[in-house]
Write a structure and sequence with these properties.
With 226 residues, this protein is an alpha/beta fold. It folds into two domains: 43 residues; 169 residues, no CATH class. It is built from nine helices and seven strands, in the order ααβββαβαβααββααα. The strands form two sheets. Strands 2-3-6-5-4 form a five-stranded mixed β-sheet. Strand 4, helix 4 and strand 5 form a beta-alpha-beta unit. It starts with a helix and ends with a helix. One of its GO terms (biological process) is protein O-linked glycosylation via mannose.
């Protein structure tokens, strides 16, 4: 009986040694294969992303140093189920800090064609500013995002203190976002009203017809800016 126990013990020890050696050989093989070396190089030196891309994301919106979080698949519906809201989709860099420091926040709303007035508002109000904006379709949304980017790059007051909220007609929520940021390099920071006037000329006739038939949802926008 004692001899059988010893034999089983020796066999177990032998198997353990063989398995350990086998695992070591496999590990060395994976470490020094050519494929693995290539993978390590790729991880250590990832390719640089293209600069100033034209965005064609389905649902999402992001670009390098642009701190915007807008996912068209998310948002919330209003009580009438006619509009979709996106709260704080683009917050100022100091907005959260200012919101804690100040007891009063300036809340306002605007359509795209009047958004240039935000420049003057931000010059006279030193606290946080909450702005609800309305876009009537995909082309107007793209122009809106481009113009907000222009304002944030040209106006430090807006970049730091303004938080943007968005309202879209539920029946006209775009499936994708397509913004060409290359256009900003040709825009004059000192002429926000003129710049906007040129941009709204690119709104499609179909969107214009829809806006003429549907009044600006002022009462709905109040619930977004609060």
């Amino acid at each position: 009986m004692v001899q059988r126990t010893c034999r089983l013990g020796n066999l177990s020890t032998t198997c353990l040694i063989i398995l350990t050696a086998y695992n070591i050989l496999l590990t060395l093989k994976f470490m020094y294969t050519s494929d693995c070396s290539k993978n390590i190089i790729q991880v250590q030196n990832p390719p640089e992303p293209p600069k100033n891309p034209c965005l064609t994301n389905i649902g999402g919106f992001e670009k390098g140093d642009v701190n915007v979080k807008l996912d068209l698949r998310l948002g919330r519906l209003d009580n009438s189920l006619k509009f979709k809201y996106f709260d704080n989709f683009w917050a100022g860099e100091s907005y959260a800090e200012l919101n804690e420091r100040y007891t009063v926040c300036l809340a306002t709303q605007s359509s795209l064609d009047r958004l240039h007035s935000l420049v003057e508002v931000a010059e006279h109000w030193t606290g946080p500013i909450s702005v609800a904006v309305f876009a009537a379709g995909d082309d107007e949304l793209n122009i809106l995002l481009l113009y907000i980017t222009y304002l944030r790059q040209c106006q430090s007051n807006i970049r730091d203190r303004v938080s943007f909220h968005l309202a879209l007609p539920r029946s006209r929520v775009p499936r994708s976002i397509d913004v060409d940021f290359e256009q900003i390099s040709t825009m004059d920071c000192n002429r926000p009203e003129v710049t906007l006037r040129q941009m709204v000329k690119h709104i499609s006739s179909e969107t214009t017809r829809w806006k003429n038939k549907n009044a600006y949802p002022q009462n709905h926008m109040r619930t977004v800016e609060e």
